[in-house]
């Protein structure tokens, strides 16, 4: 894509979407460091060639023009080689790592703030030393102080940054840190979404029974194919209040939609409205993002666990399941998460296509369960994590937790299990049934599961 294409692309985005996209790119942060390097170089030029600070200092502290030119030419090549070697080695390592665990690893690392700051330092150092090199003349009587001192300090900072970057990379690439950062990012998305919705949330039962319009609404259709990346909730509610209408989002955040497919339904009671304005409040892009899409974060963690199963890495599977559990706890604890949003008078204005807890529970654990292929060690870990959730989540979610645990062991009834494997599954399953009030149902499941114990042959 050309430079003009990029400018046009970012110009067409909303402010929030543009900020997210720029923060996840590799070139935006280094631009600030390059701008700082240019300003610092101008300041250095001012010190040496306008104020001539070298003439006020002892002779031994300065450099002649010819000597300085040799020094700066070496520094330019050194800093450039250092940054190029770092990036090349890093891309090779991350490409291999992405193939082992998740294709999203490279994107996550690139969008990491510390990575962007380090690359900014490399680029800024190179530009600064290069500009200083251009100022130097071949005059023998030239006596310069600020340029060599600041250039050497810049090269030292770049060298120290290289050491820090290697340490940062090796730390970041440890799988438990990756899954923890994914979990942390998804929690921040959830907190941001809750904060955005909180001023407009209506009571769930009240909204469902009393506030939904009875008549059939009018559909507004998507103007392009792509993923629903975000909905400007505040703008939609305010505009709907102004127009006296109710709006429903027919596609969930993160869902793929086709152009000309129903995107919004509006109940307007013949009030004149601007359809383009409402469609403009919904951002559709070519990829999924985590701006408002909590499902995307759960899927990323599940993908790491699935790849670890394929790589025969049980410790990584367990660690990722722990992070998924923590994220599911955060989702389940949020009891005021409602799809019904209204104005200050309590009138229903916007209906989101909101997913319930059972949906996220299935996304987080069920995909891992399927790829585990009756691996009792992984299934037992999933049940143990479900048991932990049953201890801390509200009672209204007990049915979802028990149903998931029941379905997990249901698929094993046609298998032959070792005795210890069977009891390893029954122990967390009993804890789930106890905490969800399903002890009676557990007894029948227990009897069926005990029948799967493999009869060991007798020797001697």
Record keyword descriptors for this entry.
460 residues; 18 helices; 10 strands; single chain; alpha+beta; flat; 5-stranded mixed sheet
Structure description:
The protein has helices at residues 3-11, 15-23, 28-50, 65-100, 105-111, 113-135, 146-172, 175-197, 204-211, 233-243, 275-280, 294-310, 314-333, 357-372, 376-392, 398-410, 419-436, 439-450, and strands at 63-64, 143-144, 218-221, 226-231, 246-249, 256-257, 262-267, 282-285, 340-342, 348-351. The chain is an alpha+beta fold. The strands form three sheets. A five-stranded mixed sheet has the order 3-7-5-10-9, sandwiched between helices. A hairpin with a 5-residue loop joins strand 9 and strand 10. The chain is flat.
Stretches with pLDDT under 50, minimum 5 residues: 206-210
Tally of extended strands? 10
Q: What is the radius of gyration?
A: 30 Å
In the sheet with the most strands, the strands line up as 3-7-5-10-9
């Amino acid at each position: 894509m050309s430079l003009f294409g990029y400018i046009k692309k970012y110009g067409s985005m909303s402010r929030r979407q543009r900020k997210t996209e720029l923060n996840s790119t590799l070139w935006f942060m280094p631009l600030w460091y390059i701008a700082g390097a240019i300003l610092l170089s101008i300041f250095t030029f001012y010190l040496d060639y306008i104020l001539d600070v070298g003439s006020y200092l002892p002779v031994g502290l300065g450099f002649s023009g010819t000597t300085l030119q040799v020094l700066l030419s070496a520094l330019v090549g050194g800093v450039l080689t250092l940054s190029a070697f770092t990036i090349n080695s890093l891309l090779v390592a991350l490409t291999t790592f992405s193939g082992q665990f998740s294709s999203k690893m490279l994107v996550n690392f690139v969008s990491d703030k510390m990575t962007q700051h380090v690359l900014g330092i490399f680029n800024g150092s190179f530009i600064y030393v290069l500009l200083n090199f251009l100022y130097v003349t071949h005059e023998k009587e030239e006596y310069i102080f600020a340029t060599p001192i600041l250039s050497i300090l810049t090269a030292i900072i770049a060298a120290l940054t290289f050491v820090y970057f290697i340490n940062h990379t090796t730390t970041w690439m440890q799988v438990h840190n990756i899954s923890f950062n994914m979990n942390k990012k998804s929690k921040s998305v959830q907190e941001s979404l809750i904060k955005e919705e909180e001023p407009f949330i209506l009571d769930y039962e009240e909204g469902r029974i009393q506030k939904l319009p009875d008549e059939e609404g009018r559909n507004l259709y998507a103007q392009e194919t792509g993923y629903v990346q975000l909905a400007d909730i505040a703008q939609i509610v305010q505009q709907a209040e102004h127009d006296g209408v109710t709006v429903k989002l027919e596609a969930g955040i993160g869902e793929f939609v086709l152009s000309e497919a129903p995107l919004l339904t509006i109940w307007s009671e013949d009030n004149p409205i601007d359809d383009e304005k409402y469609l403009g409040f919904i951002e559709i892009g070519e990829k999924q993002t985590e701006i408002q899409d909590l499902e995307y974060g759960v899927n990323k963690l599940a993908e790491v666990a699935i790849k670890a199963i394929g790589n025969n890495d049980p410790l990584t599977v367990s660690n990722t399941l722990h992070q998924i559990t923590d994220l599911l706890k955060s989702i389940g604890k949020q009891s005021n998460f409602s799809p019904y949003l209204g104005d200050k008078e309590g009138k229903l204005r916007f209906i989101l296509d909101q997913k319930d807890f059972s949906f996220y529970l299935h996304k987080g654990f069920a995909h891992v369960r399927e790829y585990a292929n009756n691996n009792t060690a992984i299934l037992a870990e999933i049940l143990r994590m479900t048991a932990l959730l049953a201890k801390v989540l509200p009672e209204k979610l007990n049915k979802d937790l028990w149903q998931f645990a029941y379905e997990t062991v249901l698929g094993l009834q046609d298998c032959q299990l070792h005795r210890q494997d069977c009891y390893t599954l029954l122990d967390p399953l009993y804890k789930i049934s106890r905490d969800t009030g399903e002890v009676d149902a557990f007894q029948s499941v227990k009897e069926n599961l005990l029948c799967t114990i493999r009869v060991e042959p007798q020797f001697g």
